[in-house]
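If you are new to this repository, start here. Below is one unmodified record pulled from the training split, so you can see the exact layout before writing a loader.
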Amino acid sequence: MTSFTERAISIIRQIPPGKVMTYGQIARLAGSPRGARQVVRILHSMSRKYELPWHRVINAKGQIGMKEESQFFRQKMLLEVEGIEFINNDTVELSLYLYEPIN
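And here is the target side for that same chain:
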């Protein structure tokens, strides 16, 4: 595992219930400001193995990145169970729910 991957996994694990982070935010904090797609790959391939709270990671617009309908609704439901409310059925108010870890 690369050090970027290890740092990204560590950051994702820290996201508390009821908060979200963006792919780009995680990439930047893990040391690769342009590595948002790498974060997507990590979530896709390692969420189960490392028990990552994948559902707490969204895009920079505050939206769920999943395009497939059942996955979209699963992620939305998991976030709503944690108390996150959506605007216009698909957007999280980042000013309320964005997690900013202390370095």
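Two things worth knowing about this chain: The longest strand covers residues 21-22. The chain has one domain: 3-97.
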